[in-house]
Write a structure and sequence with these properties.
CATH superfamily of the largest domain: Pseudouridine synthase
Number of helices: 6
CATH architecture of the largest domain: 2-Layer Sandwich
Helix content: 10-25%
Distance between the termini: 36 Å
Number of strands: 13
Largest sheet: 9 strands, mixed
């Protein structure tokens, strides 16, 4: 199969849970090295997905890395699940619940009505367990050491937010939002708006602009598709993926 990784290629990957976006990039770099002999190549991703999230990641190689900002700027769609009545320090399942709240007052009508509070341009506080830089370091470095940190809110935009299933204490949702939106923060804020608590238990990015998860390949499918039988370097490929944290 012909390839144009060095001149520039856009790859749609379905990221697995517990992989970082860096893991995806690194795995592709290693694959290209040992299957095509490409030892030096620019590769980047158009928008980080948290390790506990799955779904669409757009990977750009070669000259196509110049287009990363264009992909990042496009609206994203996510589906997932909130768990009501509890919060975690990370706003997701990376950490264990540390606070508990009543849910008996929450009805399906209240849940659906509360989504309306988040439609449009809103101020959102990013989670402290995030890769945002604070004083030159990623915020999660401070958070994991229990060091105090001051985050700044920023404006994001949500065009669609709907509840697709209610099975208390779980609530499934679908949301379309702008670049820079943290769905973990949306979970936390949604819980507060319900006079309770909530954290994110599942998240999948289903689209970036016009590009859909249905068109993406898993890492294994990508490697099977682009395996190069003509390259004779038979050294074993080690899984060198790692969490940059």
């Amino acid at each position: 199969m012909q390839h144009d990784f060095e001149s520039g290629k856009v790859i749609f990957i379905n990221k697995a849970i517990d992989w970082t976006s860096f893991d995806v990039v690194n795995s592709i770099k290693i694959f290209l090295k040992f299957n095509y002999g490409i030892k030096k190549i620019k590769i980047g991703h158009a928008g980080t997905l948290d390790p506990r999230a799955t779904g669409l990641v757009i990977i750009c190689t070669g000259k196509k890395t110049k287009e990363i900002d264009n992909y990042q700027a496009q609206e994203k769609e996510y589906t997932g699940t909130f768990r009501l009545g509890e919060t975690t320090p990370s706003y997701d399942t990376e950490t264990l619940p540390d606070e508990f709240f009543p849910t008996s007052h929450i009805t399906a009508e209240i849940i659906h009505e509360t989504t309306k509070l988040f439609i449009g341009d809103i101020e959102q506080m990013p989670p402290i367990f995030s890769a945002l830089k604070v004083d030159g370091k990623k915020a999660y470095v401070y958070a994991r050491k229990n060091k105090p940190i001051e985050m700044r809110s920023r404006q994001i935009s949500i065009s669609e937010f709907e509840i697709t299933r209610i099975a208390m204490p779980e609530v499934d949702f679908r949301v379309k939002c702008s670049k820079g939106t943290y769905i973990r923060s949306l979970a936390y804020d949604f819980g507060k708006a319900l006079n309770s608590g909530a954290y994110l238990t599942a998240l999948c990015r289903t689209s970036i602009g016009q590009y859909k998860l249905d068109d993406a390949l898993t890492i294994e499918e990508f490697k099977d598709l682009y395996k190069n039988p003509e390259f004779r370097d038979v050294r074993p490929v080690k899984d060198e993926t790692q969490d940059p944290a």
